[in-house]
């Protein structure tokens, strides 16, 4: 990551917004504006669909396989048949936004890059948001979406869950909920800068204050209160990094930037997962902000991180497909 790239991204993320606590409408509009400036790769087509009773965006590769068309802007069109990735497979993606803002469209730079780099199609879920729908609406929607994929005949051994920020935490807690419901678990979890501690007790909440160009404790408390409503932040589905039993979860890749107040959400989640016997990789990028992967095409480290993430997903899907073939 060059110094010029870091400065450019930091300036973008520190642009001042309206003063004082922002309304839900202001937060959502500001995030849409920010994410509209991200580069969405060519080589994909998108189509609206439903999953688990919720709207979703189906994202498919059109570039002929992994890495096809990962440079340039998006190309939209009607969804066709399911793409044939490495051994088949599907990405179930959960967007970020503190459970208050964001959508499959705002996350398209991330899902598009995963799709073009893996050759796998993705479903990006439009789960319900707070304050209209506080906890546990989002995890309920996520579990229903995963259950729907299984009901449609998807092999869990070739399904991978992925997400960024709040959605990264949701990818983890969907596995917890699926395990507790007796459902077969997916092949892997990919979490970009997961929000995984609603108690906000990580040391990085203080040590990275001011270094983080996006979040402050005050801002996180503002949106967090909308999502929590009257829920106990120590609930395992709200704070898996500190209060969940992670036993039995599938292999996980956690990517995070070193300049995040939420850094310790990732480090403690990885430590607890490892202690529970989970195969986990913690991938920390120096001098990088929250969900820096969205800056693919602008930050070298974003593209490199996405390449590592795609390799992880392809390996896990191939392993799942091989195991399925052996069992057959």
Question: Can you describe this structure?
Answer:
By secondary structure, this protein is an alpha/beta fold. The chain has one domain: Rossmann fold (3-Layer(aba) Sandwich), CATH 3.40.50.1820. The chain has 10 helices and 8 strands. Strands 1-2-4-3-5-6-7-8 form an 8-stranded mixed β-sheet, sandwiched between helices. Helix 3 crosses helix 10. The termini are far apart.
Top CATH class: Alpha Beta
How confident is the prediction overall: mean pLDDT? Answer: 92
* Global structural class: alpha/beta
Helix content: 25-40%
Give me the strand/helix succession.
HHEEEHEHEHEHHHEHEH
> CATH homologous superfamily name?
Alpha/Beta hydrolase fold, catalytic domain
Could you name the key traits of this structure?
single chain; 328 residues; alpha/beta; Rossmann fold; 8-stranded mixed β-sheet; 10 helices; globular
Task: Give the arrangement of secondary structure elements.
Elements: H1 3-13, H2 24-36, E1 44-51, E2 54-61, E3 90-94, H3 108-118, E4 122-125, H4 137-151, E5 159-164, H5 166-180, E6 188-192, H6 204-207, H7 217-228, H8 240-243, E7 252-257, H9 263-275, E8 280-285, H10 300-327
Parallel strand pairs: 3-4, 3-5, 5-6, 6-7, 7-8
Antiparallel strand pairs: 1-2, 2-4
Helix pairs in contact: 3-10, 4-5
Task: Give a quick summary of the entry.
The protein has 328 residues and is α/β, with parallel strands linked by helices. The chain is built from 10 helices and 8 strands.
């Amino acid at each position: 990551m060059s110094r010029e790239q870091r400065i450019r991204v930091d300036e973008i993320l520190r642009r001042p917004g309206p003063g004082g606590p922002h309304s839900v409408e202001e937060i959502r509009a500001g995030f849409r504006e920010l994410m509209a400036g991200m580069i969405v790769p060519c080589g994909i087509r998108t189509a609206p669909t439903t999953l688990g009773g919720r709207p979703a965006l189906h994202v498919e590769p059109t570039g002929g396989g992994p890495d096809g068309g990962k440079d340039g802007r998006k190309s939209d069109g009607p969804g066709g048949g399911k793409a044939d990735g490495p051994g088949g497979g599907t990405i179930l993606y959960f967007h970020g936004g503190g459970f208050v803002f964001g959508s499959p469209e705002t996350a398209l730079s991330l899902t598009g890059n995963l799709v073009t780099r893996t050759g796998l199609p993705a479903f990006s879920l439009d789960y319900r948001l707070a304050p209209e729908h506080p906890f546990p609406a989002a995890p309920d929607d996520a579990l229903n979406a995963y259950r729907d994929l299984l009901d449609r005949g998807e092999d869990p051994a070739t399904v991978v869950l992925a997400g960024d920020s709040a959605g990264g935490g949701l990818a983890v807690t969907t596995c917890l909920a699926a395990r507790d419901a007796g459902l077969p678990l997916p092949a892997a979890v990919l979490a970009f800068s997961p929000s995984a501690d609603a108690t906000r007790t990580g040391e990085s909440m203080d040590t990275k204050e001011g270094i983080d160009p996006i979040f402050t404790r005050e801002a996180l408390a503002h949106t967090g209160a909308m999502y929590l409503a009257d829920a106990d932040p120590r609930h395992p589905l709200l704070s898996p990094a500190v209060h969940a039993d992670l036993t039995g979860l599938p292999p996980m890749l956690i990517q995070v930037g070193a300049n995040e107040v939420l850094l310790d959400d990732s480090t403690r989640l990885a430590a607890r997962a490892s202690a529970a016997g989970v195969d986990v990789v913690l991938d920390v990028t120096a001098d990088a902000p929250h969900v820096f992967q969205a800056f693919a095409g602008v930050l070298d480290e974003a593209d490199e991180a996405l390449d590592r993430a795609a390799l992880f997903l392809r390996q896990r899907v191939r392993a799942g497909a091989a195991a399925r073939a052996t069992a057959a």
